Amino acid sequence: MTQELVTIEINDQPYTVPKGRLLIEIADEHNIKIPRFCYHKKLSVAANCRMCLVDMAKSFKPVPACATFVEAGMKFWTNSEKTQQAQQAMMSFLLINHPLDCPICDQGGECELQDVSVTYGQRHSNYQGIKRVVIDKNIGPLIATEMTRCIQCTRCVRFGTEIAGMSELVSLFRGDRLEIGTYIEKSLQSELSGNMIDLCPVGALTAKPSRYKARAWEMQAHPSIAPHDAVGSNLELHLFRKAVLRCVPRENDSINETWLSDRDRFSYQGIDSPERLRQPLLRRQGQLVAVTWQEALQAAASILQQADRSKVAALANPNSTLEELYLFQGLMRGLNIHNIDHRLRQIDFSDQTLAPLSPNLGVSIAELEQQQAVLLIGSNPRHEQVLLNHRLRKAALQGAKITAINPRGFEFNYPIAQLFVAPSALVKRLASLAKASLVANQSAIPFALVELLQSIDSTEADQTLVAELQAATHKLILLGNLAVQHPAYASLRALATVIATETGARLGYLPETANTVGAWLAGVLPHRLSAGRAVTPAGLAVTAMLQNPETVVLLNAETADFANPAQVSQALAQAHNLIVIGAFADQPLLDHATVILPGSVFAETSGTYCNAEGQWQSFQGAIEPIAQARPTWKILRVLGNASGLPAFTWLSSEEVALALTAELDAAMGNYPSYTLNDLPTLQALQLASATEAEFERVTTVKLYREDGLVRRATALQARVEDTVVELNPVDAANLALQAGEHVQISQGELSLQLPVRISNDLAPGTVGLAAGDEATAVFSSVGLVRISKRV
Ligand code: SF4
Ligand code: FES
């Protein structure tokens, strides 16, 4: 549809612009300055601050530019006397109650009110009365409040309802008593709450962790990429005296728009954690002792050279950079070690040879919000991929039909149909939907799925869901973390493929970490080399290689990063040698490490992350690695030299990335493709289901406990929920348990005492026990647990 163009005048200059656009948007595009406080391009128009008043022809009163839609022939003056008078008057009103505390305000130097008042205000105030004082609120560990400074622009309030999907800050009272606050004093819970700090045009909401540590003009901005989820949010690290003092979003409309998740914003606090590995360590006479880099590298190289190659387990965290991952697999393969993997939380690898080159979204991030129907399988995107969830929320609010099939219910912040069943019933639930899609098209059951599908009868609800998917033009099926980590992942993927094929939807993945896509491309896999090239014979996958390893090499991984931390601890205890390369090491690693090579975090190295849509984003290190730590890619490069690998000659991380690019180019797109025809027959995996005494464990990793850096970010840790045992109300009643009561939860010989939470988000016969804490690390993430009342 072509947009009607009209001609208007601003400051006596003609502009041809689309009819109906907001005057403030046109002014911004043409670099015509109009002051504003309540207007924000990503929020609805409130027009309550009146700071953007401009003089309009044929109007007695000036009009707000943020609420004026242009029509042909309109004329505006943004700098006439009438405009200036209006702006000065509004500044006076806004400053009536605002304290003159700029010298002690953390926002000083980057405050919109300060800037606008200098440019558009008056030298003196005519106000002689008493200023209003508003009592501060404690809204949690991330945001500090000084509510007397608030000018009630309501950006934070609108952000909550329109973007975060949680109405946490609200307008209380009326008129000159109006205050912004929470109805009851409580911490903000939104995973996007930190964006309110950026939105607040004054110093009412400031970042608590960095408060009073430096003035805005003393910091240097350094562009970087977020290291946690697969969004690859663009951000700026603000440096003060060679340390990262805070982190803010860098606008990129196709990725993170103007937003940043709290995880990406505050995880920088882990960079100088006391738990950082600071110097090379070598075990001598049972103790880890500090040694030189040369000694540590020689020790690591000699362990690798002398190891029985078939008994080496080489495991990398997929949140490592592309360069680190490429060098890691190059090092191992150069030494003829093939037990290499990055899928630390995955259990089922039975269809790995047919997996696509890399698990990505299948559409661009921006396209997510254009979907009309989305089926999420095994995913809580609000925690897994905060800003992809924001895109899905936009789609839902525009009318998209979103359905989630999960092993438990989650708190979504948009309208969604949730279907949740016990983990052991998940395959059957999806099979029912797949059968409905085959029946709708009168298609034959694919050979590999005959056993799974022939005895399944689909329900009417499934048929309706299939019809909705078929009717939509833009539709997507997404496999999330809980699907990938399910013991019958191959079946879930095959069934999702059937539904996608029969409904014409695209099948995509919500990759688990910042560089899961990159780990696949770099070939940190037992069955594929870099660029997706097959390797025969394949090495062992993560669970198999940890059965009885003699040598373990960990890159940026701790036991808490695995599906079964207890199995990893046991493997480390049995192994003769453990080489740790990374920035952090949890207790089992410290107890068993032979050599520790202290590496970098994202802010201390150059590198590349490949995000969910497959976009490579490179960044430079902002600060030097802590103490004696070194950029991890350099450690791997030098370890390659020490191990006698002649190909390890790269001089920069850019050269390493180029080597992988060349391999991908040489592969000429000749990558493996996932086809149902090649799948071996899939059988219904008989997962143990609940009995009278036992319950199926449903495991999700706690938000802010997913990786080493986040686990050390102190402010975020204050937001981590207490560990509880979640039970369905029926099961709780059968066990005569009340909320808050302590129970004994056991798996095998191990038990814990934890309080109970009663939740309608659990299916009967299941128990919710989140992973990510030291306490629960003793349990496997899947399988049965026993619950008994504490006596
Ligand atoms: S706290 Fe800040 S963002 Fe919220 S209404 Fe007040 S001035 Fe606006
Ligand atoms: S910016 Fe226009 S009224 Fe506030």
UniProtKB/TrEMBL annotation:
What superkingdom heads the lineage?
Answer: Bacteria
Cofactor, how bound (note): Binds 1 [2Fe-2S] cluster per subunit.
Pfam family example for this protein? Molybdopterin
> What is this enzyme's class at the first EC digit?
translocase
Name the cofactor(s): [4Fe-4S] cluster; [2Fe-2S] cluster
List the GO molecular function terms. 2 iron, 2 sulfur cluster binding; 4 iron, 4 sulfur cluster binding; metal ion binding; NADH dehydrogenase (ubiquinone) activity; oxidoreductase activity, acting on NAD(P)H; quinone binding
Q: Which keywords annotate this record?
A: 2Fe-2S, 4Fe-4S, Iron, Iron-sulfur, Metal-binding, NAD, Quinone, Translocase
Question: What sequence ranges are listed for the domain 4Fe-4S Mo/W bis-MGD-type?
Answer: 219-275
Asked whether the keyword 4Fe-4S is assigned, the reply is yes
Q: What is its EC number?
A: 7.1.1.-
Q: Name one GO cellular component term.
A: membrane
Its biological purpose is as follows: NDH-1 shuttles electrons from NADH, via FMN and iron-sulfur (Fe-S) centers, to quinones in the respiratory chain. Couples the redox reaction to proton translocation (for every two electrons transferred, four hydrogen ions are translocated across the cytoplasmic membrane), and thus conserves the redox energy in a proton gradient.
The text of the family note is:
Belongs to the complex I 75 kDa subunit family.
Q: What is this protein called?
A: NADH-quinone oxidoreductase
Give the organism the record lists: Thiothrix eikelboomii
